[in-house]
Structure formats: C-alpha cells, structure tokens
C-alpha cells in the first residue's frame, strides 16, 4: 500500500527539494561538495522517514530551513571574502 501524501509529508518533500536546490546553487562549481551534501541530506531525511510525532517533524523541518539559510548566508559570505569583495572580515 502506498503512503498517503499528508501535509507533513508534503512539507518534508518541499524542505528536501529546497535543500537540494540550495546546495546546487551554493556549490555550483564543486560537484564533489554537491554530491557529499546530497548524500548527507538524504541520510538525514531517511532517519526520520517513519516519524509520526508532529513536534519532532516540526523541529526537523525548522532545522532544514536553518540549514538553507546558513548555506546561503555563510557560503556566499565566504565566497565574497575569498574574492576580496568585503574587506577585512
């Protein structure tokens, strides 16, 4: 029997896709980093595949959003710093 697509399942799928997209964008010229990030993301999401506790699911979805934010902010900042665009950070 196929699992029903519940709102929490849709949120998890959306968070997963958002993480993968962000990883591709942030590590666009580094295939090794993309593959490592993709593998880690898949492993983390699979750990909670059968989770039914809404509090745990909400916590993990919030964590996924934080990771997206950190990747966008910190990796972009590191690129600017390495290129000399920000000065003495």
From TrEMBL:
Its main location: mitochondrion. It is found in: Mitochondrion matrix. Keywords: Chaperone, Mitochondrion, Transit peptide. Interacts with RIP1. Assembly factor required for Rieske Fe-S protein RIP1 incorporation into the cytochrome b-c1 (CIII) complex. Functions as a chaperone, binding to this subunit within the mitochondrial matrix and stabilizing it prior to its translocation and insertion into the late CIII dimeric intermediate within the mitochondrial inner membrane. Modulates the mitochondrial matrix zinc pool. Belongs to the complex I LYR family. MZM1 subfamily. This is Mitochondrial zinc maintenance protein 1, mitochondrial. It comes from Phycomyces blakesleeanus.
């Amino acid at each position: 029997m196929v699992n029903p697509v519940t709102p929490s399942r849709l949120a998890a799928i959306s968070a997963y896709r958002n993480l993968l997209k962000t990883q591709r964008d942030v590590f666009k010229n580094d295939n090794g980093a993309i593959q490592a990030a993709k593998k880690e993301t898949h492993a983390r999401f699979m750990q909670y595949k059968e989770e039914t506790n809404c509090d745990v699911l909400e916590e993990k979805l919030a964590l996924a959003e934080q990771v997206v934010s950190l990747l966008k902010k910190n990796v972009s900042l590191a690129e600017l710093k390495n290129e000399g665009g920000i000065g003495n950070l």
